[in-house]
Sequence to fold (304 residues):
Amino acid sequence: MSEAPSTSPVCYRHPERETLLSCSRCERPICTSCMNDASVGHQCPDCVREGQRGQRQAVTAFGGNLAAGRAGYATRAIIGVNVLVMVASVILGGPKAIAGAGGFFGLLGNGTSLTDAGEVLGWAYYADHSVHGIAEGEWYRLFTAMFLHYGVVHLLLNMMVLWQLGRYLETVLGPIRFTVLYLLAGLGGNVACYVFQAPNQASAGASTATFGLMAAMFVVNRRLKLDVTQLIPLLVVNLIFTFSMSQISKAGHVGGLVFGAITAAVLAYAGTAKNRTIRQAVGCALILAVLIGAAVWRTSDILG
Fold:
């Protein structure tokens, strides 16, 4: 005599499993492997995913993604790019690209073919009688220079500052806004080098951007009504260091500081949530336009 078929419900995701449990949201039967604790009862995986899609992402005080900002994706990525570029420079330039080439108590490294190609340089003759520089159409130098370093010590000093300040600023701004801040500060410092330095004077390094982060910390903490007195000695010491060392680009550091502060002010004082992102985007676009205009003027001045 054959047995009567079972009439017990089965899990909708695992038909071979009988169950007396059901999703408190859609009421479909679920097994113990599929149930997820909810505020009331249990929910199936599909309802959990649907609920997560309907939740608004937590944002920072300035409109960025809070969870992504806390993870520090942008800071880590920027450090990674700088390290990879340094590795490429060492491969091309050999041991002297690491340290021991003089400058900064003998700890800086030699320039390499990579730094020669990407550093800020207005206009200059090379040994092979070729002419290079931003004024010759190599505009990319204004961007690439912020990822190039003369030796490992130069790299480590900048990456330490980037890690310490970047993690905090990315947390309060979010990764996208932090990346915009970093790039505009670095670009601002490099444009200042182009405008105020001799056309044949080369410079490179992330310090244009990291000086911008110092200024941004001051602006952001003021906006959040936090204590900024501890930041003042940091800025003063770094400015004294900048103007006391002959190998440091004074224009680059001051330019990064100024444009980092301006960009941070745009991001921090754009108002409340309504239309805030649009105002931030427009403000940053205007800063970029000013920098491009300054670089165009300097080019016409050199070539004129």
